[in-house]
């Protein structure tokens, strides 16, 4: 049962009016010690304030909360350009961004919902898949929420994603146009929805190019960590990544579509360490188009991270205006960037 404002007042030893003043940010009439006592009581009781329709229409801060979940660091190859896009778009629209970091996988604790609703943000962007209980609390209180890079967002949230399946299809077509038929896909973990979406795109493209009896070779990473590491301290392929690139070379494929650029670069190095030449003996395509891909000459699927960030800000404002989650959601197109890592197959 939801705690009431009277219960918070009783726990804090103040009147309900004082609780109301604290929750409305009236620091001019409530001393700091009392304010802290009220907020602590609200957290202890998991109190979630219910916004009225009048408040939702008229109380605006022009601030959007951006929550970086544990799988996407704000200084990482995905989080940083995504934030740059959000920053540019928010500045154009005269909005502020408030950044929240949730480094632990199990970041939802008792009272987390109330803490989000107490942030004085007009809406929230979650970089990664949000927890449904948070989205439910935001939706019930008419606070817009948007999820970036979430294939299946929680009910009530809009999503802004790249066309994962379409990007993998472009990669398969590019390799097929160079004469490859034994094309393997090194995929993300089987439980991951984004990896599942890319795998569907891979298999659909293979059947389109080569028919229902096409070569079907997929190597799954056990964890994202297995495909997010590249070098160890000695410059060799990291021990965590090593098993998956070893398994890949054992397949006999002439070309690979990798889950991301870091894995593609690890496969490239591992193959060359064993006397293979890229692209003469093996063609490789990655995903993300990070700076290292450009430097190495790796063909890659360019994910428009900055555009995703910009679109996420627009989605929050669209939900504020009353658009449905479907209307506010976006799937952004991706583009294959051809470089020197793909050529016609050779017999190995």
From TrEMBL:
<dbReference type="InterPro" id="IPR046335">
    <property type="entry name" value="LacI/GalR-like_sensor"/>
</dbReference>
<keyword id="KW-0805">Transcription regulation</keyword>
<dbReference type="GO" id="GO:0000976">
    <property type="term" value="F:transcription cis-regulatory region binding"/>
</dbReference>
<keyword id="KW-0678">Repressor</keyword>
<protein>
    <submittedName>
        <fullName>LacI family transcriptional regulator</fullName>
    </submittedName>
</protein>
<dbReference type="InterPro" id="IPR010982">
    <property type="entry name" value="Lambda_DNA-bd_dom_sf"/>
</dbReference>
<dbReference type="Pfam" id="PF00356">
    <property type="entry name" value="LacI"/>
</dbReference>
<dbReference type="Pfam" id="PF13377">
    <property type="entry name" value="Peripla_BP_3"/>
</dbReference>
<dbReference type="GO" id="GO:0003700">
    <property type="term" value="F:DNA-binding transcription factor activity"/>
</dbReference>
<dbReference type="InterPro" id="IPR000843">
    <property type="entry name" value="HTH_LacI"/>
</dbReference>
<keyword id="KW-0804">Transcription</keyword>
<keyword id="KW-0238">DNA-binding</keyword>
<dbReference type="InterPro" id="IPR028082">
    <property type="entry name" value="Peripla_BP_I"/>
</dbReference>
């Amino acid at each position: 049962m939801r705690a009431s404002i009277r219960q918070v007042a009783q726990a804090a030893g103040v009147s309900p009016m004082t609780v109301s003043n604290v929750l409305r940010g009236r620091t001019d009439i409530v001393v700091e010690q009392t304010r802290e006592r009220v907020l602590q009581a609200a957290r202890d009781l998991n109190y979630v304030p219910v916004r009225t329709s009048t408040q939702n229409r008229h109380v605006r801060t022009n601030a959007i909360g951006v929550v970086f979940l544990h799988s996407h660091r704000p200084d990482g190859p995905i989080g940083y350009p995504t934030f740059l896009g959000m920053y540019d778009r928010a500045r154009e629209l005269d909005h502020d961004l408030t950044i929240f970091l949730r480094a632990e996988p199990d970041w939802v604790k008792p009272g987390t919902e109330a803490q989000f609703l107490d942030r004085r943000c007009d809406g929230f962007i979650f970089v990664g898949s949000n927890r449904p209980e948070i989205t439910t609390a935001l939706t019930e209180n008419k606070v817009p929420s948007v999820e970036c890079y979430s294939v299946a967002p929680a009910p009530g949230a809009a999503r802004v994603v790249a066309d994962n399946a379409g990007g993998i299809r472009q990669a398969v077509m590019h390799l097929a146009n160079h004469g490859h038929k034994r094309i393997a896909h090194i995929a993300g973990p089987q439980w991951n929805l984004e990896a599942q979406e890319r795998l569907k795109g891979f298999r659909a493209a293979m059947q389109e190019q080569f028919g229902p009896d096409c070569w079907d070779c997929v190597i799954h990473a056990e964890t994202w960590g297995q495909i997010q590491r590249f070098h160890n301290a000695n410059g060799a392929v990291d021990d965590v990544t090593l098993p998956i690139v070893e398994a890949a070379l054992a397949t006999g494929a002439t070309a690979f579509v990798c889950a991301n650029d870091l894995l593609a670069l690890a496969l490239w190095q591992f193959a060359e360490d064993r006397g293979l030449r890229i692209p003469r003996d093996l063609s490789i395509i990655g995903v993300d188009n990070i700076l290292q891909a450009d430097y190495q000459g790796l063909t890659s699927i360019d994910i428009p991270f900055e555009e995703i960030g910009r679109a996420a800000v627009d989605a929050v404002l669209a939900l504020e205006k009353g658009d449905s989650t479907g209307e506010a959601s976006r799937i952004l197109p991706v583009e294959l960037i051809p470089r020197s890592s793909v050529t016609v197959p050779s017999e190995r």
